[in-house]
Amino acid sequence: MANIRVQRTFDALFALEDVREIFRQSLPSGLTPEQEQKVRESLAKVREYIGEIEAGGANTGTCPPKTRIGSLEIRTREEEYINIHPIQVAGRLTPEARKAIIAYGDGYSTCDYCRKPFRLDRITRPGIEDFHAELARFLNADQARVTPGARRAFQAVVSALVEKGDSVIVSSLAHYTEFLAVEQAGAIVKEVPKNEKNIVTADATAEKVEEVKRETGKLPALIMIDHFDYMFGNEHDVYGIAKVAKQYGIPFLYNGAYTVGIAPVDAKKIGADFVVGSGHKSMASVAPSGVLGVSNEYAPKVLRTTQMVGDVTKRKFGIKEVENLGCTLMGGTLLSMMASFPTVKERVKRWDEEVRKSNYFLEQFQRVEGSKVLSEWPRKHTLTKVDTTGSYDTVARTHKRRGFYFSEELAERGIVGEFAGATKTWKLNTYGLSWEKIKYLSEAFLDIARKHGLNVN
């Protein structure tokens, strides 16, 4: 059953948006009598909805028809549930980001005061130019740019540095977008094998460099390694790998899709020539959004500006950056990142606390006999791969709902994000949950186990 107060909160917000649309359709001189009447009608609805919110408990009274936006259902996952989805939790918008979306959702809203040289990172109102400088300081990189997702940052670097037929070293746990960036350039991926602990080491990377050198007669054009991978959430030796890259004179790209925005990241301390982050994955920003930090050594290549001239018109656009296709994040996407940034800068200081909460939950989780953590233990990250083949899956084998019983049991307790029907190996992420929610989550897993006769140590 839907939470009526949550639903009516959305109804009130949408009614206010209807009022806003009336102002948008009106003349600067003021509203017509008909428009004034529509405003009064919408505000009456707002007052009615607020009254219902104030009046009762979460699920009292007759539930109204579920609110929709045209054919779209409203998304109430974050308001009604504890969400442990592996890739969603650090992308939850802050209240400031949600307000920025309301104000700057129009397509080219960042361009209201765009003046020469007509480039995104030079806009001063809103303070996009200052944000770029602040972002570079946050990453401890020489320069920074925003991109439409981490994948576009990979693409920009690979496009600038890698030629057709070159080799690019990635982790054997690398994200598919790294592969695509290399493939698009006509280059070849060479994977560093993980060890028995599912970790990629500096020694293994050095061995791969030597292997590529023997096979191709030249060094790889680039090394791209994830700090924490998306499959296990394990930490890889990026500091050691950066040293290997430096010894061979190979540029090193640090993939911080699961760190930039939640954990401290220092490009110079790491020894990274490039730092890539994901706005929608780890910086409380609207998708698609990402960031790219660049060292001064490689900025002339990766941030090069166009030199092309039209043969008929003789037009040239020399200030536009080629790899970024000119401007990148426009409108609410960028403004959401900027609005969340003060919170993001503070929350990275509390990363150790987030990891402690994750470990607390997983200690409780492992009390259910047969439940295992497949990621490195104890955890160094809040993203974790688990194995419940010997616990919750034993129930699924004979349950009439098969693996879906587990998702339903969790949902009844207000928990979502576990892949529906998964009871063998699956991933979860506890980032951003309060201690109160962590303890509630822990008890919910134990309660489901006890209900279905599983041993709890």
UniProtKB/TrEMBL annotation:
It catalyses: O-phospho-L-seryl-tRNA(Cys) + hydrogen sulfide + H(+) = L-cysteinyl-tRNA(Cys) + phosphate. Keywords: Protein biosynthesis, Pyridoxal phosphate, Transferase. It comes from the Archaea. Pyridoxal 5'-phosphate binds at residues 150-151, 255, 278-280. The keyword Hydrolase does not apply. Gene3D superfamilies: Aspartate Aminotransferase, domain 1, Type I PLP-dependent aspartate aminotransferase-like (Major domain). SUPFAM superfamilies: PLP-dependent transferases (SSF53383). The keyword Protein biosynthesis applies. Converts O-phospho-L-seryl-tRNA(Cys) (Sep-tRNA(Cys)) to L-cysteinyl-tRNA(Cys) (Cys-tRNA(Cys)). Belongs to the SepCysS family. This is O-phospho-L-seryl-tRNA:Cys-tRNA synthase.
